[in-house]
Amino acid sequence: MVYTTIFFDLDDTLYTRRNGLWDAIGARMNRYMVERVGLPEADVPLLRRHYFETYGTTLRGLQRHYKVDSDDYLAFVHDIRLRNYLQPEPELRRLLLSLPQRCWVFTNADSDHAKRVLTILGLVECFSGIIDIKAMDFACKPETEAYQRALFLSGSPTPEECVLIDDSSVNLKAARDLGMMTILVSPDAKEHPAATYIIPNLAVLRRTAPILWT
Q1: What is the residue-averaged pLDDT of the chain?
Q2: Coil, strand, or helix at residue 171?
Q3: Tell me, what DSSP letter sits at residue 14?
Q4: Is the pTM of this model over 0.70?
Q5: Pair (129, 43) in one structural domain
Q6: 108 and 206: one domain?
Q7: What is the pLDDT of residues 40-58, one digit of tens each?
Q8: Are 46 and 81 in contact (CB under 8 A)?
Q9: Cβ(160)–Cβ(1) under 8 Å?
Q10: How many CB atoms lie within 10 A of CB 134?
């Protein structure tokens, strides 16, 4: 099989989950639900988990139940000094630029956040574009519609030509069910039925999945 297209998740995939950024974003989500939506602080963690498991993202749940403004939510939760958590990644840049496939960021976040992250990491030129929550008409991974939109927006490759690299096994299962090759980024997992390969971070991608360079 010749792979033509690679979709990369953004948060906790292009940077390590251990740098604290995703925790900071999660804290902003909690604040939004308390300060803007008016929910009791004690209820927020379980409600966020319920929304994530039911709708794929906290935003989708809040849109469904509280009609929140998506732009207001996304601006609020991503209002973080990213340079406190991220730094340029020249080795990752070289690795990504060596890939022969067209590479896309495929994220449930918005493109403004994705562009800020990519700029600090020094990875903007590594990607053909960003497929974000707005480009997906607010469908989100792992919904089938999100993957169909991603395929269309990336030039309509067949799923069998595509690879998804993501830190979420749920997102990978949906991609694998469509026929994509899947790579789980996890420093802890040893095996998972949804993953063709498992890597602790992107630094070992070439060693683990050399097929991408053939």
Answers
A1: 96
A2: helix
A3: T
A4: yes
A5: no
A6: yes
A7: 999 999 999 999 889 889 9
A8: no
A9: yes
A10: 15
